[in-house]
Amino acid sequence: MTDERAIEQTAREAVLARIREAIRDRPPVAAVPRDYERTLPAGAPILELFAERVADYRATVHRTTPDQLAATIATALGARGARRLAIPAGLPDVWLSETTIERVTDDPPLSVEVLDRLDGVVTGCAVAIAETGTIVLDAGAAQGRRALSLLPDYHLCVVHADRIVGSVPEALARLDPRRPLTWISGPSATSDIELQRVEGVHGPRTLEVVIVADPLSG
């Protein structure tokens, strides 16, 4: 160690020692309640808020019940004219039980070229956020790797009511930060310097969201 570095390190240690001494008898830091950040007001209609916010992003929203889920998906895919779809591992067979589409599984992983030629993808989600209309995928069951929801031009995402939370902090509490998280707020879109909206640059141009709730829960 050179003399200059030794002097610099000694000076640094002296400064830090003085700081530690100065704050040694400081009062303890008061805990700040954060519950108010974690939820919407009690009784807030989060399903309706989520559906509204998702629609604000120009996504198509379908509301259905568990026993009508397969029919709802079949109708949506039929209207889209989709025939070949990417299917992530763990997607329940019953979701597509009323369709005749060709299911292209991602095992082994599909190439970029194959994904680009498919008509779309059907996935579930890890969490959905009512306050922001955001859907989060974490590569878990029925979601697949990130490329599945980014490369095809059409994404149909099934969101069960028990996956919908009020706010972003609530979503973060449910998510594992070690997993690859994809946050989706509507179809992919960006704007150029003249504010001309361009869709499909960073992901699907078309997003359809199927919200599944018990009839009694709205």
Description:
By secondary structure, the chain is α/β, with parallel strands linked by helices. It has one domain (45-217): Rossmann fold (3-Layer(aba) Sandwich). The chain is built from seven helices and twelve strands. It has helices spanning 3-22, 35-38, 46-56, 69-80, 112-117, 146-150, 168-174; strands at 60-64, 84-87, 102-105, 120-123, 127-129, 134-137, 154-160, 164-165, 182-184, 189-191, 197-199, 206-212. The strands form three sheets. It has a six-stranded parallel beta sheet, with helices on both faces. Strands 8-5-6-9 form a four-stranded mixed beta sheet. A two-stranded antiparallel sheet has the order 10-11. A hairpin with a 4-residue loop joins strand 5 and strand 6 (134-137). The protein is elongated, with a radius of gyration of 24 Å. The termini are far apart.
Short description:
With 218 residues, the protein is an alpha/beta fold. The chain has a single domain (45-217), classed as Rossmann fold (3-Layer(aba) Sandwich), CATH 3.40.50.10420. The protein has helices at residues 3-22, 35-38, 46-56, 69-80, 112-117, 146-150, 168-174, and strands spanning 60-64, 84-87, 102-105, 120-123, 127-129, 134-137, 154-160, 164-165, 182-184, 189-191, 197-199, 206-212.
